[in-house]
Design goal:
CATH superfamily: Ribonuclease Z/Hydroxyacylglutathione hydrolase-like
CATH topology: Metallo-beta-lactamase, Chain A
Helix content: 10-25%
Distance between the termini: 37 Å
Largest sheet: 6 strands, mixed
CATH architecture: 4-Layer Sandwich
Strand order of the largest sheet: 1-2-3-4-5-6
Order of helices and strands: EEEHEHHEHEEEEEEEHEEH
Radius of gyration: 16 Å
Number of strands: 14
Oligomer: single chain
Number of helices: 6
CATH class: Alpha Beta
Shape: globular
Strand content: 25-35%
């Protein structure tokens, strides 16, 4: 089985996740840690739990989700993976980071690209990749069937969806992708979004005002 640890970092209140298995092998998703105390919080948990970080992954590459990429990659000497469509989004961050109050932002070089047609492996555990563009052009969602964990990034939130007014965003594309990919998951799937509290697929199918049963498309 897989376990999940949540951290909330930076002024955007971004959720960073560590997913780990029974052998203590771990993946860091969307490290938003910028300040030293945030980085200490992340590393302290990894050290206390004796985790072995195997890779760094971004669900997508907006600034609030990538602030700690270089730190995590350097600290644990691990490969950094994204969807290929997110590379321009990632590369653009350095051009505006200072304007958002992050003058110390460091770029991290991508090592591998993720293909949504393949599964991700963490030890013996298989993680499915869902392609859910609309908020960002190469946004991926990660689903582990056995534990019913879904790391959703900025696609589906409790009672909301990701914004679509940023470069590469498209509102209808996001609605369609959520309906096709995420709402095909079991209702008791636990959705861990990029911001805010956990929700479930069943709850959002019923009550989400953008994509639920009561939504007007």
């Amino acid at each position: 089985m897989l376990q999940l640890k949540t951290f909330t970092f930076n002024p955007f209140q971004e959720n960073t996740y560590i997913l780990y298995n029974d052998n203590l092998e771990a993946i860091v998703f969307d490290p938003g840690c910028y300040e030293s105390h945030e980085r200490d919080e992340l590393t302290s948990f990894i050290e206390d739990e004796k985790l072995k970080v195997k890779m760094l992954i971004n669900t997508h590459c907006h600034i609030d989700h990538v602030l700690g990429n270089a730190f995590v990659k350097r600290k644990y000497n691990v490969p950094f993976l994204i969807h290929k469509n997110e590379l321009p989004v990632l590369k653009s961050v350095v051009t505006y980071a200072s304007n958002y109050g992050f003058p110390g932002y460091e770029e991290a070089e991508v090592d591998h690209y993720l293909d949504e047609k393949r599964r991700l492996e963490l030890g013996d555990e298989k993680i499915e990749l869902l392609f859910v563009p609309g908020h960002a052009p190469g946004h991926l969602v990660f689903y582990h069937p056995d534990s019913k964990i879904c790391i959703a990034g900025d696609t589906l939130f409790q009672g909301s969806i990701g914004r679509t007014d940023l470069p590469g965003g498209d509102h209808q594309t996001l609605l369609d992708a959520i309906q096709k990919e995420m709402f095909a998951l079991p209702d008791d799937t636990k959705v861990y979004p990029g911001h805010g509290p956990m929700t479930t697929i069943g709850y959002e199918k019923e009550y989400n005002p953008f994509v639920g049963k009561r939504a007007k498309f």
